[in-house]
Fold these 4 entries.
Entry 1:
Amino acid sequence: MVVSEQLDAFFTEKMKDYPTQRSFLVPMLLYTQDELGYLSDEAIAYVAQKVNLDELEIRNVISYYSMLTTKPRGRYNVQVCRNICCMLRGSDEIGAHVKQRLGIAHKGTTADGMFSFEEVECIGACGWAPAMQVNYDFHENLTAGRVDEILDQYRSKSSL
Amino acid sequence: MADLVSHPDEVRVVSKRFGQGAADLDRYLAFDGYKAVQKALSLGFDGIIKEVKESNLRGRGGAGFPTGMKWSFVPKESAKPKYVLCNGDESEPGTCKDRLILEHDPHSVIEGVVIGGLSIKAKVGYIYIRGEYRYLVDIMRKAIADAYARGFLGKNIFGSGVDFDVYWHTGAGAYEVGEESALMESLEGKRGVPRIRPPFPAVVGLWGGPTIINNVETLASVPHIILGGGQWFAELGTPKNGGTRLFCLSGHVNRPGVYELPLGYNLRKMIDEVAGGVWKGHKLKAVTPGGSSTPVLTADEVDVGMDFDQLMKAGSMLGSGGVVVLDDQTCMVKYAQRIMMFYQHESCGWCIPCREGTDWLKKTLNRFHAGGGVKKDIDNIQYLAENMLGRTFCPLGDAAAMPTISIVKKFRKEFEDHLEGRPCPYEKGVVEQLPVLA
Ligand SMILES: Cc1cc2nc3c(=O)[nH]c(=O)nc-3n(C[C@H](O)[C@H](O)[C@H](O)COP(=O)(O)O)c2cc1C
Ligand code: FES
């Protein structure tokens, strides 16, 4: 199986919460991606079979949601909010700083596969701006110095 | 996680359990938890709707529709199952309040969903949380599981003979999915393309069954209304605008954060006193009073009570409660540009006025801010935006057009200051490399 047995069993169970088979599709894609890193052809085939739809229909749904990706990304996806509240408190500088530190552009991945960078829209941290998410972790009230510390923490975490 | 703030003017209803560990079921029970559901069971559906109507609770998701009235539109009898859908997609820029409710008081949302369900005789509710909020999905999953374990959800809740199930769900990144009909599509496992109305969700909603859709904060207010009484809640606010609201103060203020204040609270006071005034000793230039989609107010227009009707009269909207404060160093063209970039990015592309309109406006504003604007662009921006109003399939087009129109009208001079290839007069340092029209 493409995903772990545990995840597959979780999907089977969760699908019972809905009257139609495809209802859990969007979360299923996200959780599959969380486990595999991205939605590979094999992952798409697996999900299609699981919810009993064509692969094309699955791809159709994937292309709508901004968090879903069919391309591999870095182990840590750094998502800097560029929306208004963050912009007003310096997100342009934060974004530029991350790009420069990692040496990658929007949607790029570092050569060692450690980090990816993405500018994203409002992540619901407007009152604690500027803010970013690294994978699902929120980091708020950012400064360039804080960003350096955070990136270093992730780097040392992965070398453990 | 997100820090909590406080101010003496706050009236804590929805936020009263914040910071108290109430995500834990036993803690929640110590703070009157699940008493409202039991009271609601004894009130019956008519009794619930009566209290909610009396409370003058209006939707906290953006449109401010009276909640009790929305619930009363659901047909009493239905061949198809009825549903409650809690909208936790929170993505309107400037809005960061549902996040706190889901983090600190998830059981109040569950209770709100059950009470809403009882009022329309539904047996199932779904809580949809945006994909980025994974830690809140995990908190909600635990809260739901805990409630089942105690018999507060499932078969025969509180020995009433009534069954009620609540399920969690999550998105995967899409602002448009916060629009109620797109939300249903997403929950059904599809692309979040909105549905045509009528029929309204109260009649034909999830899987064709009558459905009430409410914002997280709206539903979290309901248990308090049931316990404290509709009249008590109504009196906290202003006429036809019951209760309090979680205002998300952001932008150029000294003490940003989420504050719970009574509806009708003066906006100037909110900025100067609650949020500690404009930062760095700067002056106020403008305020977005209810999330990025609402028309901006100038510094001269902020003596207004923050409720749905007073803001409407002032030419704006209370929206989602996101108050974004802009100081006098802000470039309004850049602000308009940034807002449009967002709506262009989020347009689902289904209808032409929204898809093409946001794209043209984004390109024009990008070029304009980069110094490539020509005089007639200013009128064109306004004309285009005005022609989107009311002509798009769902209100995302309006959300893009309304702030744009207000900025062009109220800050025309700033547009003129960018003409003839002049660099942005407000920008220091960052120079954008964008194509300049020959
Ligand atoms: C483009 C768009 C995005 C929206 N996003 C949200 C959202 O993230 N959360 C929300 O509660 N309502 C959102 N709404 C409003 C919903 O359509 C709906 O009116 C609301 O959830 C109803 O709940 P209420 O009556 O409790 O406010 C959005 C509307 C539009 C047009
Ligand atoms: S604008 Fe950045 S988190 Fe909302």
Entry 2:
Amino acid sequence: MTVLDIRDLTVRFATHDGEVAAVSNVSLSIAKGECLGIVGESGSGKSQTFLAAMGLLAPNGRATGEVNFSGMNLLTAGEKALNSVRGNKVSMIFQDPMTSLTPHMKVGRQLAEVLVRHRGLSAADARAQSIAMLKRVQIPEAERRFEAYPHELSGGLRQRVMIAMALLCAPELIIADEPTTALDVTVQAQILDLIRIAKDETNAAIVLITHDLGVVAGLADRVAVMYAGRIVEVGDVRQIFKAPQHPYTKGLLACTPRLDDETGGALLTIPGQPPNLQRLPPGCAFNPRCAYVMERCLRERPALLPDAAGGLSACFLTNAQGAP
Amino acid sequence: MWSYFAKRVAIGVPTLWAIITVCFFLMRLTPGGPFDAEAPVPADILVNLRARYHLDDPLWRQYLDYLVGLLHGDFGPSFKYRDFNVTGLIAQGLPVSLQNGFSALLLAIVIGVPLGIFAALAQNTRRDYIVSAAAMTGIVIPNFVMGQVLILVFGVWLKDSVFHLPAGGWDDGAFPNRILPVFCLALPYIAYLVRITRGSMIEAMRANYVRTARAKGLPFRLVVMRHALNSALIPVVTFLGPATAFLLTGSMVVETIFQIPGIGRYFVQGALNRDYTLVMGVTILSAALIIAMNLLVDIIYSLLDPRVRYNEARS
Ligand SMILES: Nc1ncnc2c1ncn2[C@@H]1O[C@H](COP(=O)(O)OP(=O)(O)OP(=O)(O)O)[C@@H](O)[C@H]1O
Ligand code: SF4
Ligand SMILES: [Mg+2]
């Protein structure tokens, strides 16, 4: 059963030097209980895809397409309808726990207001449930932490608070945007464990946005790879790791250090610059950096089509793409 | 934290003393004196006058006398208003200036801050442009021009209508007499507050935690009032601290235009007349107010943002 269905989503920002398409024609669907990983370099449009889906774009951004969630199109839904979904049926966890909590409010109040809002709980009940949730995300001394201000907590604890906040209303979907990027390595592992536990316990669907393929490997069922605002490959997580199809995915995998790596852990990077959205080359956006580039790649843009490995990819090498 | 504030108060005393000292000697260094009237005073009378006001004492002596007087709440005699002492003049003028200042301050906050928030939330729309342009106009038009315009419109043109307002005078603080000066006093502050609030609110709305609050499904009004407003108010408070001190000690320009017997007017006249003690009195009062306001601003900071914790290490 599909929880969230994104159809042909395009996000444009009005900027001083013209319009930028940060996301172009993205279609994705997320099934109940599924964990979908979204990977791609910085600026590839991962965050904007889901911010747009939740109606949280910056004022200069416009989204077109469809985002279907429990029978409504979130892109055309009013603020009121959106607010009954946000934090309730769909919740979000953001990258930077240092700045994602309101500094002048005690964390307890920030948790409780979600329950007051969506569940209509009294202050006392909201407090009790919030503290219970803090305990569930393994925050020691939850009662005391409930009264703390964000700056009095460590980064790891703050991210636990964010996770607790996301779980409060037992959402159908949790969008975690780089939940571990800003944290120490040891804390990263703990937070990922926590997300895994939450996933198993609540059966919520999870979108896990990251540029770390290692994170995806341990948690995701399916992976979508984004490049320059488009999805270039989608597939089952094992397939992506075992038989990546798109040259960009191959490049990403080659850059991910592995324990059994014979290069001795030397970090590779994909040659060339990350794309500039305002000056994308004609044809395949990846063509300046692609080792397999052909003449056709300079003229035409490959569509996202089924490939031999069973997923979808957007490359002239991996599927027929019609007659050249 | 409270020991920090106690310390700040304690530091305020020597600061004030330094201001008094600098001001005292600067006044005496300025050419001219209180008795250089247009018609020269005969030499023998001048000698008597100088003796009466102890101006013939050595300067250090006058300075010490003045300090001792201040400790007793005595700002000394006025050199120009012969039968008054400065303490009396201030006691007379200060309530008038305080009332006008407070009214203008309230008016400025009540209009300026919400209007700034309104413009910020409508950023880059026509509503924003109108408000921002009006604010810019309010900033660039000087007080003395605005005062004259107000007098012309409400005092002269609308003379025979219900909107007629007195063009000046105080009439013991009758309400209609207060309207124009308070409005004139408040206008530039409204304009500044709109600009400052607009800017800081736009900034605050971009904060990650505001995005979190929206992602939680809180209604927009709550997101703004509960999550964004606090940090947006910090620059507003920073501006209002000294602004309050200036407003409360009376605007020389506005009080002069509207002939209001506040202390701002005394300051102008005092300075022109080299009325040493009167100028000193008003200056000390302003300085004390500014010091107090800065302290108040620091206290409000710590209320707006719990990360602001004052301690000895940071002071
Ligand atoms: N308000 C905005 N105005 C103009 N451009 C924007 C705006 N917000 C985002 N963008 C652009 O949209 C593009 C996609 O951004 P997005 O945040 O989705 O990247 P991302 O894949 O999440 O990268 P990261 O890993 O850095 O988070 C970026 O190039 C960014 O510059
Ligand atoms: S379409 Fe061409 S340039 Fe693009 S990834 Fe495939 S081979 Fe490379
Ligand atoms: Mg991002």
Entry 3:
Amino acid sequence: MSKEVLSKEKRTLLFGNEAVVRACLESGVGFSASYPGTPASEIGTVLAEISKETGLYFEWSTNEKVALEAAAGAAFSGVKSITAMKHYGLNVVSDSLLPLTYLECPLVVVVADDPGCFSSIETEQDTRWYSKMGYIPMLEPSSPEETMDVTKKAFEIAWKYKIPVIIRLTTRVCYTRSIINLSKIPKINSIGRFEKPINYEGSCSHTVLGHEKLLNKIELLKKLSEKSELNFTESGTGNIGIITSGVSYRYVKEVFDDLKIKLPLLKIGMSYPLPDEKIKNFCKKLKKVLVIEEVDPIIENEVKCLTNNLEVHGKDFLSSVGEYNTEIVLHGISKILNKKFPKDIENIGKQYNNTEIEPRIPFLCAGCPHRATFYAIRKIIPDAPKLGDIGCYLLGSWKPEKIEDIIVSMGAGISLAHGVSKSTNKKTVAFIGDSTFFHAGVPALLNLVYNKSDILLVILDNRWTAMTGHQPTLTTGRNATEEAKIIDIAEIVKACQVDNYASANVYNMNELLETVKDLYSKKGVSVLIAKGECKLAYLRRLAKEKKNYFRFEVYQQNPDLKELDNFKCPAIFKENGKYSIDANLCWGCTVCKQLAPSSIKIKTQ
Amino acid sequence: MKSDIIITGYGGQGVLTIAEVIAKAALSQGYNISQTELHGLAQRGGSLQCHIRISDKKINSELILVGSADLIIALDPLEALRACYWANPNTTILINYKTSKPYLVEELSPESLITKIKKFSKKIEIVKADDIVEKLTGNIMDANTYILGYALKKNILILNKDKIWKSITDKIRPEFIESNKKVFNEALK
Ligand SMILES: Cc1ncc(C[n+]2csc(CCOP(=O)(O)OP(=O)(O)O)c2C)c(N)n1
Ligand code: SF4
Ligand code: SF4
């Protein structure tokens, strides 16, 4: 990935996420920190790849709040710094981000929203609300090209006005690749001098004064927003206008071309603070306006407040739910123009909707360590409430695993299970991945011990942050850029003064079953550290080392094969009562052979 | 020149790699390009669609409008049917005929899927890349290279074959170049 980001050409193909990194380099950023979260994950992945070569410091921090605080420390030390996260990360960091605006911290915060929830299972939230609550300026690019310019602009604003600035990306901007013009990368400055914010004192009255100062600053930023080229108009004919932001802008342009029309258009690229006067001026000559923005009606509500005698449409024509695309925008624009939706397109859509197409849902890889753990827990503890968490193992709440009852947010499973246990007098089960445990699990584990819970906590240690693209975690033996200590989860659990804990190798099914049985039989807090490296990460490493691995085959149809129905490996098929293994799909985890020893053996070739 | 292409398949099949190869070849031919894809959950075996728009004019939106793809390259018949959302009677649909059984998906024969696909467009090209490549090199990982070569030969992927080959070699590890070359040349025959 990094090759393009460091390109010395005049132009190259970059994803939105890569454009952020290139813009950091061109802006002389010296410090960056992140915690993975799709759709923003690759910003960190690329920063990790280029860090050594460019001198731009990067770390994968243990969670977003830690990353933000570290980046703020760098900014207070005069080093340009940035942090990037997915939208849920902003929920985690808000406790620190909001005071940093009072403290005049010049920081750039990239937040990626996921309209349509392509890689999000918690909420379809709109980050723009945070700007209003926290008085945080926000820039919103609509393409990778704009992301490049907007990121540079964000640093200018952050440093000129001494304030954190949010860049709001969305999935489509992050994961669209287009041709970007490049400039020279200056020498990176990663060492500065710490300076305490002027007249700082941590007092209540000081905070009230800080609030006032901040409001004054937002007034100045409003003036900037009025003048900013990020909020621009495009002329058009008629008295019906469009106000739009983010990727929707591009769909609007496509629809204009398709329908061969050109309506007056206002594109909002700085969505906080909004350019009130520009909006009023734009609306002055219009009779109707359609606001086209993904997710919540934030600009729409402002436009309604700023204007009177104007017919303002938005979410009455276009949904607050899901990702937009050209046809959705075409619907909205046809509606406000009182035009019929193009017939041929409508017919294709109808025919498609009438065709039955089976869904293909994601599942755990063949040989995944989580599958083995789920199998053992299901076997020994069939009916206790089981609370899940976020990671590849969230697929445990899907077909065919269906083992996790609820998943809320990172780290939530442990305390949910604690509450359920206290309220049902039943020993409950909670699952948490290694990366999620370090992110938000440790305080929850301490709470279990302190408040005498009765629960089996299963820590799924696969040595990677797998779901978001295999970033290293504290058990990998590497940090973002170099070798690092392997943090031993068992030592942490011990230090939390858990009475009953044990590690088990998930690929040794007998050991795993015995350990689960033993731990679940004990009253109080039990912790199982289920150890098995992410198979995908492991096999990729083998491939790089040009090593091979054993695959398995069914050589006899004996009754022990029946147990495989409970294991559900995607490489094993059953047809007319006969079992077989597709060698192309087998990842050699050995579990099937342990479950059906008289029928399965290593495949001979 | 304008070509709106959907590459589709399921996570793990190499949809994103094919898209990257095409986009980079188009870049080296001086076209404007927009390519969009998804990461995260979709990569764990779920269905995956990637939009590539190539044009000598400015490209507005990265997503292709319903019913307006010029070409759909599907690595699997079920995903080909799913991508018919972007098909019209003039869309060429190149389908990799996969017979291996998918996981968690009810048995649907490729034939019955293809019958359904024909209702959207009759311009269908079927290629049994997995079988051919298995015989040729024994490594079905090379199947996508065959599909690209085939699309070039049939003139449905309107890009320069040398640029595509260069783009493939930039992407794969050196030890696989030899077998991919064999597969690519066979497809172009
Ligand atoms: C606050 C927050 N940050 C980031 C994410 C994105 N995210 C989803 S899963 C995951 C990590 C999971 O890693 P781990 O717990 O080790 O499980 P694995 O995927 O390795 O099984 C992350 C960071 C999120 N959902 N919420
Ligand atoms: S990526 Fe790793 S942890 Fe995730 S499902 Fe695959 S094997 Fe399991
Ligand atoms: S077939 Fe057996 S050895 Fe291969 S991945 Fe599945 S369970 Fe593991």
Entry 4:
Amino acid sequence: MKNENCMIEAKLYTVKYDADTVSHLVPDEESCKKCISKACQTVCPANVYEWNDTENRLIVNFENCLECGACKIACEKHTLGWQYPKGTKGVTFKQG
Amino acid sequence: MSENSEKFLNKTDVIVVGGGPAGISCAVTIARAGKKVVLIERGKFCGSKNVFGGAIYAEPVREIFPNFETNAPLERKNTEHRYAILGEEDATTVSYRNNDSNPVSYSVIRAKFDRWMADEAKKEGVIIVTETVVRELILEKERVIGVRTELENYYSDIVVLADGVNSLLAKQAGVRGEIDPHDVAVSVKEVLKLDNAKINERFNIGDKDGCIYEIFGGPMLNMLGLGFIYTNQNSISIGLGITMNELIKHKLRPYALLDKLKEHPAIAPLIKDAELTEYSAHLIPEGGYKKIPTLYASGVMVCGDAAMLVNNLHWEGTNLAMISGKLAGETAVIAVNKNDFSAKTLSKYQQSLEKSFVMKDMKTYKDLMGTMAMKNEQFLGYYPKKINSFFKMFTAVNCIPKRTMFRGFIKSVFKERGIFGLFSDGLSILKLLWSILR
Ligand SMILES: Cc1cc2nc3c(=O)[nH]c(=O)nc-3n(C[C@H](O)[C@H](O)[C@H](O)COP(=O)(O)OP(=O)(O)OC[C@H]3O[C@@H](n4cnc5c(N)ncnc54)[C@H](O)[C@@H]3O)c2cc1C
Ligand code: SF4
Ligand code: SF4
């Protein structure tokens, strides 16, 4: 897992972002506590979601989001609040 | 400003949401007919949020931009098409070359190509508003009359939704429901820098020629997933798309699969020492014909990925997007001329789409994804591996008589799949072929 984290960080390093100060991704904390699959974490191509065992909470590194929409569709409880970031924010692909 | 005076001031004939191939084609069609059209795109520029393989197809692009070959930012004209069936360590590749001076497709970089299309559309009178997210549709008596963005409201007689696969707006318009993880693929892609001469050498192609790989199996064995490679002038695009459901079921990370694909012995030498310049990700609609939503309602039409118009097996999407956008544009012009924006008038869009290759192709493959999903272990696991072991056997030079090897191979197929299994696989293939050809 550690190695996987390194790999994805190197990839995300190549992406140009203008991060907002507020998250456009808002999981429902109560659903996440009961969620078994944590499917958002599995499908996310940018490793945005991390389950924190000690805090019993889903951490959202929204600054890394590639705005693909996968997590919203995958969410086991259908409770993940998902919006596009503001027009001036988020990812800008130079190639795509 | 009151909503009423705003309605008057900020009003055009048509609003198009989304500056991808569908939206741009739609907007330019409307502008050419002399109608007032505004295109709203959330990215910094058109193309800045878009990702594909990929190749654009010459003929459909020509329908919208007849002279694109002279001034669009094209990378290479594709002359070689390879189908690679990867086993765990080995590979069988079929390749087709055609040096026709009239190429079927060109590789492009979307951030450049979509931007170019948008600039062309602007020259022809489309008002382009960027860095603006449409948050919701404005409805009046169940008719769509405009859109709400972060800053202001825009009003029009018709709104065309070309906002891509996630289309939150089509859902609000009530023409589409939630997307199911079975009906969409998660794709990841990398653009790898490699100099022109090395690309030509490794892919055995000329300076301006391109090579496409369509990849089955490998890290995606047993799963509904496809990989791709496209050659650009000085870079290689490599990626894969895999049904979301498979990722959830097997707890696989999409980027880990891509890394495995890059390490496959048949792929690694092609990209050796190439440097990662950009990683990206996007969804691909995969539900096929059966999941196409209603394409119109009062005051609104849906096109491109928002309408789930993608032909997965052939990596076709931009062409379906452009033609559906054009047809929606033509219908919008008719409606504006008649001053009638009812669902009945806009249903002409659906009718013309049914008559075009777009819906016909979608229909042709209506059973493909279902059959593949149902028989994934056989068609996407067992047989791809078996094809490779056939060639392993066929190319082997040892002291076993050939006939013994051939018989051994056939016996192994019967043993592994069983008479019943083979019969059922054969039947599925026949059914699928029948559904495609009839
Ligand atoms: C990995 C991959 C490989 C592919 N390979 C190929 C290929 O080789 N050839 C091919 O023809 N097709 C390919 N496709 C499919 C093709 O990319 C799509 O079918 C095509 O881009 C659809 O065009 P579109 O205009 O409908 O949507 P998009 O290109 O997705 O454009 C939608 C636009 O709407 C904007 N938008 C979305 N929501 C809003 C909003 N609320 N407000 C304002 N703007 C908004 C987005 O920023 C975007 O610019 C591939 C797709 C993927 C993901
Ligand atoms: S899948 Fe949904 S409910 Fe589960 S952890 Fe992720 S956001 Fe929470
Ligand atoms: S939209 Fe895509 S990249 Fe962003 S958090 Fe969801 S899955 Fe990850």
